[in-house]
Amino acid sequence: MKKILVVLLAAMALALALVSCGDSSSSAAEKAEKTYNVTEIADKLFKDIKWTDTLQPLEEDMVENILGISKDLYSKCRIYEGGVSTAEEIAAFEAVDEAAAGKIQTALEGRIAAQKKSFEDYQPAELPKLNSPVLKKYGKYVFMCISDYNATAEDIIG
Amino acid sequence: MEHEKVKKRSNGVKAVTGLTCLLMLGFVIVWAGIRTFQGFKSSGSEDSSAAAAVTTTVPPAETAVSSTEAPAVTTAPEATQPAPITPQTPEMKFPTSDEIDDDFSDAVFIGNSRTLGLKMNCGKPLATFLASTGLNVQKIWEAKDMTLSNGDSGTVFDALKEKQYKRVFLMFGINEIGWPYLTVFQEMYEQVIKEVRKLQPNAVIYVQSVLPVSSKALSINAVYTTENIDALNSEHIYNAAKNTGTVYLDVNSALRDVTGALPEEASTDGIHLVKKYYLVWLDYLAKNT
User: Fold this and answer.
1) Where are the extended beta strands (E) located within A24-140?
2) Contact list, A53 vs chain B (CB under 8 Å)
3) Which of the four pLDDT bands, split at 50, 70 and 90, describes residue B22?
4) Is residue B207 within 8 Å of B237, Cβ to Cβ?
5) Which domain holds residue B41?
6) In terms of domains, do B234 and B259 share one?
7) Does A83 contact B at CB distance below 8 Å?
């Protein structure tokens, strides 16, 4: 009887584990297939998050100068930048394809690393934001949000 | 009879005294009126000369600060004479980036976080910026914050070796204003300017005055006052330009309010500007260089 119970419990645990794995992988797959409106998401991040800095939209012809991301990698983007006194920033891209999205993600990781180096002596209070940025890649879409409200950012991005 | 004589004499004295007082009063009124009229005439001419000084703060491009063509505000008759403080520009206009008729494609901007803020907000993709947060006239020699054409990191001077520019805009001072000896800052700044001159022999080098700060900056450091900024500019930045034969560019004048400070709305921390004020700065450069 005990043996039967142990076997049943083990089978239940295995079944539960398989179900949860299945759920997360199907969720990731769903997100990769999903279509995002990068402009709307960036604008919502801008409006709904409580920023300490005054963020302004970055002109598209300045994206490569500031973020090091070439125009041929994306079809749409929306960037909001602060005025240097904080590291607060929003970046949302619809890349031309998934490979380009990978390059964009790498460039944004480089941006975060460079900002950390800039702020560590200059404004160390900004480092917590940079140490836990929201940086998401779903298929050909890439989102970055550096703020004090990661949970809100993640809810908005989805 | 005797009594009447005395009475008549007394009335006469009173009449003369009264007449004299009236004459004196009339004289005082006329004299005061003349002096007041003269005062109005002379203050009108002082305002005109001040306005002339405000509108002509930058000497011709090829001319050093001590040129005879330079207006009084940027020319010092003696080597130690500080620059006078430029009065506040009466009206601040806020252009868009597209309205600023200069793409700065022939220019390089060198400086600290304020210059970095200008880069992020200027909307001029053809301009070159060699700037980093915390950069100062000491760190500039060793800080490898610039990305060179081969992808390596290098100093500002490494980057300057890669391309020749027609205009070089320098702005340092806000990170050094708390140094114990600002004469040391000036000497080091002059060394930086000389190195830039060596690497950019054909460029016009503009040494920009330090921008004003607002009261919010005091919460960062008590050294950030209008008085300290003005003293830094008039006693050290100006003389660094003069001693190196470069052009002193008083951008501070374009951004200060009637008290000499940065307007409160211009900055969230008192030091770094919001976008529309960066464009005021840029517009000043476009119009004066």
Assistant:
1) 56-57, 74-81, 89-95, 134-138
2) 268
3) confident
4) yes
5) 1-55
6) yes
7) yes
Do residues B37 and B67 share a domain?
Answer: no
Q: What distances in angstroms separate CA B271 from CA A119, A149, B76, B108, B114, one per listed residue?
A: 16, 25, 29, 22, 8
Q: Are B188 and B239 in contact (CB under 8 A)?
A: no
Out of B113, B122, B125, closest to residue A84 by CB: B113
- Which distant-in-sequence residues (6+ apart) come within 8 Å of B271 by Cβ? A85, B114, B174, B213, B217, B220, B224
Domain identity same for B76 and B31: no
8 A C-beta contact, residue B203 and residue B165 = yes
Query: What total number of domains does chain B contain?
Result: 2
| Domain match, B13 and B156 both | no
B125 and B259 inside one domain: yes
Dump pLDDT digits (tens) for A70-94.
Answer: 999 999 999 999 878 899 999 999 9
DSSP A155: H
Whichever domain contains B186, its CATH number is 3.40.50.1110
Q: For A83, which of B97, B117, B134 is closest by C-beta distance?
A: B117
Does B20 share its domain with B104?
no
Backbone angles phi, psi at A79, to 5 degrees: -125, 140
Rg (CA), chain A: 20
Cβ-count burial of B185 within 10 angstroms (0-12 exposed, 13-18 middle, 19+ buried)? buried
Using a CB-CB cut-off of 8 Å, the residues of chain B touching A121 are: 134
DSSP track, B110-177: EESHHHHHHHHHS--TTSEEEE-TT--TTGGGT---EEPTTS-EE-HHHHHTT---SEEEEE--TTTT
DSSP B208: E
CB contacts of B275 in chain A (<8 Å) are: 54, 56, 83
Query: Based on the domain organization, do B45 and B68 belong to the same domain?
Result: no
How high is the mean pLDDT of chain A? 89
pLDDT digits 0-9 by tens, B197-235: 999 999 999 999 999 999 999 999 999 999 999 999 999
Flag whether residue B270 sits within 8 Å of chain A, measured between CB atoms: no
Tokens of B27: 């004289």
Last residue of a domain, one of B55, B74, B95: B55
Nearest to A112 by CA among A96, A82, A92, A89: A89
